[in-house]
Amino acid sequence: MSTEFTEDTTPGTLQQNISGLFNYLRSKRRYIIFTALVFAVGGLILSFIKKPAYTAESSFVLDNNAGSGMGNFASIAALAGVSMDNGSGVFSADNIVELYRSRTLLENTLLTRAAFGNESELLIDRYIASQPKWRDLVAEKHIKFTANRTQRDRTADSVLYEVVKEIRKKALTVDKLEKKTIITVSVTSKDELFAKNFNEQLVGNVNALFVQIKSAKAAQNVKVLQRQTDSVKRTLNANMQGAAAALDDVPYANPLEQSLKVPSQRKSADLQANAAVYAELIKNLELAKLTLLRETPLIQSIDKPQLPLEKEKISKVIYTIAGGITGAVLITIWFIIWGLFYKKQIN
Q1: DSSP state of 171
Q2: Same domain, 39 and 117
Q3: Which one of 58, 81, 130, 157 is most buried, by most CB atoms within 10 A?
Q4: Do 174 and 101 touch, CB atoms closer than 8 A?
Q5: Of 330, 323, 328, which Cα lies nearest the Cα of 48?
Q6: Strand runs (DSSP E) across 219-328, as ranges?
Q7: Residue 189: φ, ψ to 5°
Q8: Within 10 Å of residue 124's Cβ, how many Cβ atoms?
Q9: Is the same domain home to 44 and 99?
Q10: Helix 29-49 crosses helix 11-27 at what angle (to 10 degrees)?
C-alpha cells in the first residue's frame, strides 16, 4: 500500500495520511523494539552506577513564648511598674524558616570547618569535591576559600554565591507543620558526611542567631543595669568606709559643738541615698533578668541526623521501564520526522 502526504485536510485525506503513518511505523517495529531494548538495558545499567542521594534531617520544637508560664513574675513586675511584654510577634516560627534560606547564613555555614573522619575541611571544599563542574572550575582557576572575606577574590565569591543558590534550590528543604512550631530541616547530597555535617552546622548557626536576635534587647538591658548596679555598689562601699572614717575622726565629740558632726552626717546621708538607689537598681536588675528569661525562645531538639542516613532508593525496574519507553519514543519521533520531511511517500 502506498500513501502520499498532501496539504489537503479533508477527512478522507487525513484518515489516509494517519493510516499510512501507522503502516510506516509498523514496518519499522523491529527497529523500534530493538532501540527500546537497548535503552532499557541502558536504564538498568544506569540504576547500578548512579550514586544514591542521602538525606540528613533535623527537627525541633520552637517555643517562641518561653515566658508564658511566668504569670506570677509578670504580676510582680506589673506592681513594680515594669512591663514584661516584649511583642513576641516580631520574630516567629515563620521568621526562622526564612533565616534558613538566608544567603549570609548559608555562606557562613559553607565556610565552617567540619570533621570528616580524622581530618577537617571547609564544608564548601567538601561540597565542590563531589560536584565535577565546580571541582574542575576551582582547580582550573586555583580558587581558595576562606572565612575571611577580605582574603577572597571575586571569583571565589561568585562560586560561593552560585553554590548557595544551588543548595537552596536542590539540596535544602525547610518545613513548618501547619499551625504548629515543629520545624524540620533536610539536606540532601550524594556525599553522606557532607549532608550530615552541613545540616548540623546550619541548624546550630541559625538557631543561635534566632535566639540572639530575639533576646538582644533584653540582654542589653540586663548588661546596662548590671553595670550601673556594680558602679553604685562600689560607691556605696566607699560611702560606708567614709562614714566610718568620719566617726573615727571625732570619737568623743563635744555634744555642744554640732559642727563636729557635720562630716559624719554628710557621709551618712550619702550612704542612705546610695543605699536607696542600689536597692532600686537591684529590683530592676532582677526584673530585667526575668524579662530576658521570658524573651529567650526555647528550641528543643527532637531528631538529629545520625549515620547511616536515609538513602534514596533507586528502583531498577523503574529505570529499566523508563529507559525502554524513552528509547521507543525517541526512535518513533525520528521515523516520523524522517518520513514527513525526507520522503515524499511512505510505502
Answers
A1: I
A2: no
A3: 58
A4: yes
A5: 323
A6: 298-303, 310-311
A7: -160, 155
A8: 25
A9: no
A10: 60
Residue 248 pLDDT: 53
Question: What is the number of structural domains in the chain?
Answer: 2
Helices (DSSP H) in 62-151: which residue ranges?
71-79, 93-99, 103-110, 123-129, 132-141
The C-alpha cell at 60 is: 525541633
C-alpha cell at 134: 565546580
Buried b (16+ CB within 10 A) or exposed e, 50-80: eeebbbbbbbbebebbbbeebeebbebbeee
Indicate whether 21 and 67 sit together in one domain.
no
What is the 8-class DSSP label of residue 308?
S
Q: Are residues 195 and 63 in the same domain?
A: yes
pTM, entire model: 0.64
**299 and 325 assigned to the same domain:** no
CA-CA distances (angstroms) from residue 49 to 2, 38, 135? Answer: 47, 17, 20
**What are the pLDDT digits (tens) for 47-95?**
666 777 889 999 988 776 544 444 444 444 444 444 444 444 445 566 7
Q: 12 and 80 share a domain?
A: no
